[in-house]
Amino acid sequence: MDLFVDLPSSQKGSHMSRNLELVSEIVDMNIQKPVSDLETFCAEAAKLLLKKHDYATYSEIKAEADYFLDRTYPSGKKGLEPYKLVAEARAERTGDVKKLIGVKVIGMTACPCAMEVIRKIGNYKKKDVPPTHNQRNITTLMIEVPGEEKSVDANDLIDITERSFSSPTFGILKRGEEGKLVFDAHKNPKFVEDVVRDILSEILKKYKNLPDDVLVVVKSESEESIHKHNAFAERVTTLGELKK
């Protein structure tokens, strides 16, 4: 967890021990009564943080947790795959609270640029699937949850993100499964920008009934295998902007 408050111009520093006191209190409280979801937990904690810091007008809390889902491997067997659950909440002294739920997902992209170069060099036909270099992609998707609604589920966000890669990745793969995964990914090459675009398109379909001012954040990074740099794409927008 990361905890923040703003400072008035008359004060040099925050009372940081109050943050630690709050963390201890909410951990003890939630051992007895588990929270319903991480974003509501952050929102309640952000409001309590303002009570601890009576000089502050604004508080912000960010949380990240390990998260696991049942997944079916290419072999047909099932197992647990790891993800990250992320949440943010921002509270103001006026009573306004904004909360976001999100996920961090690892997948794979196959580079379209190198594929087209190899297609020309190797004289491949249009229907052929030339080789290209693979990239491990790490994408974070966050969406605002308006009011007290329970309208956004982390499992859905994970599914949307995984569908937007060239291919999902798995902890356990046999040799034949590795080959099929790579081949399928190369039939679906994507730039890092494509991952962001495809996620936003899926978000718009899934959550079109939410208010237009709902915030959506997508950050995607493809870790390059043939360059020293990585490729990164990001879009911070609202559902209203996406509808336009």
Q: How would you characterize this protein structure?
A:
There is one protein chain. The protein has a single domain, classed as Urate Oxidase. It has helices spanning about 15-30, 40-50, 110-120, 155-165, 175-185, 190-205, 240-244; strands spanning about 1-5, 60-70, 80-90, 95-110, 135-145, 165-170, 215-225, 230-240. Strands 1, 2, 3, 4, 5, 6, 7 and 8 form an 8-stranded antiparallel sheet that branches. The longest helix is centred in the N-terminal third of the chain and has 17 residues, at about 15-30. The chain has 7 helices and 8 strands. The radius of gyration is 21 Å and the shape is elongated. By secondary structure, the protein is of the alpha+beta class.
Describe the structure concisely for a colleague.
With 244 residues, the protein is an alpha+beta fold.
Strand fraction: 25-35%
The chain-level structural class is alpha+beta
Strand count: 8
Q: What is the C-level CATH assignment?
A: Alpha Beta
What is the CATH architecture annotation?
A: Roll
What is the secondary structure topology, with strand pairs?
Blueprint: E1 2-5, H1 16-32, H2 38-52, E2 58-72, E3 78-92, E4 97-110, H3 112-121, E5 134-144, H4 154-163, E6 167-168, H5 175-186, H6 192-206, E7 215-223, E8 231-238, H7 239-243
Antiparallel strand pairs: 1-2, 2-3, 3-4, 4-5, 4-6, 5-7, 7-8
Helix pairs in contact: 1-2, 4-6
